[in-house]
Amino acid sequence: xxxxxxxxxxxxxxxxxxxxxxxxxxxxxxxxxxxxxxxxxxxxxxxxxxxxxxxxxxxxxxxxxxxxxxxxxxxxxxxxxxxxxxxxxxxxxxxxxxxxxxxxxxxxxxxxxxxxxxxxxxxxxxxxxxxxxxxxxxxxxxxxxxxxxxxxxxxxxxxxxxxxxxxxxxxxxxxxxxxxxxxxxxxxxxxxxxxxxxxxxxxxxxxxxxxxxxxxxxxxxxxxxxxxxxxxxxxxxxxxxxxxxxxxxxxxxxxxxxxxxxxxxxxxxxxxxxxxxxxxx
Length: 281
Ligand SMILES: C[S@@+](CC[C@H](N)C(=O)[O-])C[C@H]1O[C@@H](n2cnc3c(N)ncnc32)[C@H](O)[C@@H]1O
Hints:
Structural class: alpha/beta
CATH class: Alpha Beta
CATH architecture: 3-Layer(aba) Sandwich
CATH superfamily: Vaccinia Virus protein VP39
Order of helices and strands: EHHHHEHEHEEHEEEEEHEE
Strand content: 15-25%
Number of domains: 1
Bound molecules: S-adenosylmethionine
Number of helices: 8
Shape: globular
Distance between the termini: 51 Å
């Protein structure tokens, strides 16, 4: 077993094939869904109790959804816990899209246990069915989503086509700066050797602070492809799809609890996440 993911640069052939990288990510996430299955009981309890899994930063961006959001579409919904949090915040109905069949199965089990008005679709986000076009008052996504996508302009075009005129994209995502820093042995921030502008990298195995080891040995898992889209790339893709950017906020929120080893007085001074709100004119 290895303790940290095995990471290597993508080959030129891999980097040229967006769809193949997405398919590999779907297979890797099917494996990682094992971890989410262990969280299902907790998710059912939370949603049944009327709770939300979203951070206060996200709720501030979303605002009160009661009476102003008929349909929320959650892209890359995983097991549906964050999606159904949107329902708890007032969305009338929720549709979740995810590439992993095992994640969609989990979301269905969460719906069955909670009676939530939700529908789940297994698809690459780039293939989100066109019959949903122009139907979403809210497209919500983030928290570890964009890094798995390899064509951000195509993603932004999907977001734009899903929204009703006046509808909003709310994105809350890991900050690309986070890829450049990690804790040293004494709990201080230190630079990693990540190349901010390098594009996709391939990895196998998962961070101990997140998915960690699975029942499939790390070396037998699927390779997966991720990248830190720069803030400039994200904003440019959203604007390029014809959406009007309303807010871009940066935050020290350790959104995946990946930096618990940082000394208390060192936390809070670096941007680890960001939120973006954009509307379809
Ligand atoms: C970290 S999760 C997203 C955050 C989620 N809110 C959660 O509960 O953790 C990433 C999800 O993106 C999905 N995914 C990755 N690439 C995708 C793609 N191209 N299309 C649709 N879903 C994708 C994975 O299957 C996985 O469920």
